[in-house]
Structures are given as structure tokens and as C-alpha cells.
Amino acid sequence: QKLKLQLMLPSKKETLDLNKYLDKTINVKFVGGREVSGILRGWDHVVNLVLDETVEYLQDVEDPNAARKETRKLGFLFCRGTSVMLICPMEGMTPVDNPFPVDKSVI
Questions:
Q1: In a 3-state reduction of DSSP, which class is residue 10?
Q2: How far apart are CA 2 and CA 27, in angstroms?
Q3: What SS3 class is residue 83?
Q4: How far is it, in rounded angstroms, from Cα 107 to Cα 105?
Q5: Is 77 in contact with 51 (CB distance < 8 Å)?
Q6: 82 by DSSP, 3-state: which?
Q7: CA 9, CA 55: separation in Å to the nearest integer?
């Protein structure tokens, strides 16, 4: 009896379709905590991103989880897919306050 092996090949349909966000502003978070927003100009199958008019939200050194208020302009940016952790469209996104109160005396 011969053993038949079947290879699972990826389908031609993309797992992640970012075409609907082309020429729209997106927010990108990276491994390590950096965060930027910019206009998506291009992307590929490994989620390398090309952003334009990019702004980086600077982290507070003392409290990296604090809301980011300071920014710096980066302009045209290539984001390597292996460092991208999260992609979020800016349109339709509403910021909300933390529903879980933090007791600072415990920290």
C-alpha cells in the first residue's frame, strides 16, 4: 500500500486584505511599543507597509502605557512587516477612557 501525501498550499486569496485602506490613514503599532499613523500607500504579502505623511507618537519614558501626546513627523516611511504588531484604520475609530480604574497607591 502506498502512502499518499497531500500538500496544503496557500490559496491565492490574501489572508489580510489592506486594499480597502489604500490612500487612507491607518494607525500601526510595532513590536517594542512604537506607534505611528500615516496614509497607506502600499503593502505586500508579508505586511511590509509604505506610509506617507507619517507621524510617530512618542512614548513617555517613565510610563510607557500612558497616553501619547508628543509627536514627531517622519514623512515617507517603509515599515518592515516582521515588526508590525497591529494595524488599525483611523476612520471609524473612537478613543474611550480606561474602564478599569487604576489605584496608583498599589503600584
A1: coil
A2: 52
A3: helix
A4: 6
A5: yes
A6: helix
A7: 38
